Amino acid sequence: MSGRQDDGRADGGGEQHGTRVLVLNSGSSSVKYQLVEMADESRPAAGVVERIGERGGVADHAQALRTVAERLDAEGLGLDSPRLAAVGHRVVHGGTRFTEPTLITDEVLAEIRALVPLAPLHNPANITGIEVARRLRPDLPQVAVFDTAFHATIPEAAARYAIDAATAERYGIRRYGFHGTSHAYVSQATAALLGRDPADVNVIVLHLGNGASASAVRGGVCVDTSMGLTPLEGLVMGTRSGDVDPGVVFHLARVAGMGTDDIDTLLNKKSGLLGLCGANDMREIGRRMAEGDADARLAFDVYVHRLRRYVGAFTAVLGRVDAVAFTAGVGENSAAVREAAMSGLQGLGITLDSVANAVRAPGARLVSAPSSRVAVAVVPTDEELAIARDTYALARG
Ligand code: AMP
Q: 3-state class of 351 per DSSP?
């Protein structure tokens, strides 16, 4: 990350207004952090504490947060710096309660805690991050930015599952969607790349990282997404199955005698690319395909088939598509996935420029042919920057 550390080490002076936002992203087994200087959106510090609760890692999230604080202190960029304006926290599940970035109070924290049953792996880690940061700097504004929020505009026809309405209502069972910060950022950046007002542009965003999701964004407003009640639904992912017939779960319980937790682990941690071929990293799958490995080939084909299905489905949802945007680890880096996903779609107005697509380059760029009615773009996501912007806007009032 580019640095302005000499600037950071200088004594800020007590009366100075803070212009930096610390972004904390506490995942189930890691804490990622970035310090964002809002004046020029540079990153004076960034890093990750990994393997929380694992051998060789730190004990728990509280310890991980203390490690983050110590690292920042050691660089002269600690939480006590007067340059710090606020802390922004990525919070995975906002339920139906939180549809916008929210200034954290005791009441808000209690409400985030009440949503733990909807995100048992993620929200507790986010909550610990908030608690530790508030303890270290009680005076500082802290903002929660929810992964579900951008999807709150999805109409009922797309958000509801066709199950017993009273049961769904009672247990909050509906499509919430995730990766919302990324879908929002990338859909806007795609409009900017096209030189158009986001309000006039319809985009299918394909966020393809280790987790993966697609969204349909009409004029800047999300109208459908592939993840659902949990991040398990939709696309094939690194270790998650994505869509399966729910009957698979009953079959495993009845015929294989598996328990709920075993099935949860199977579908979330041992499926997807990993389940199909033993590797969840698209780079390794590419290497193995080049050596003629049939399992890797099948995993790639299943991954791409699902992706194309969603592109087709969201084309129908939007009616008119102006752009398809690829983002995150696979979307930004795998020319092979983009090529396979976009091939033969001239009928949908999509024509890839294979030469442009194969070029590795930083920054947002078009990879479609000039004749393509639908633009195909590679747009690097930057969730931390999006969280920092939301946080700073709210903290400054
Ligand atoms: P993310 O969750 O966005 O960090 O994406 C992580 C995933 O991106 C990895 O598991 C890889 O499958 C994929 N990835 C990263 N770099 C590359 C690359 N150069 N080519 C293909 N896939 C990549």
A: coil
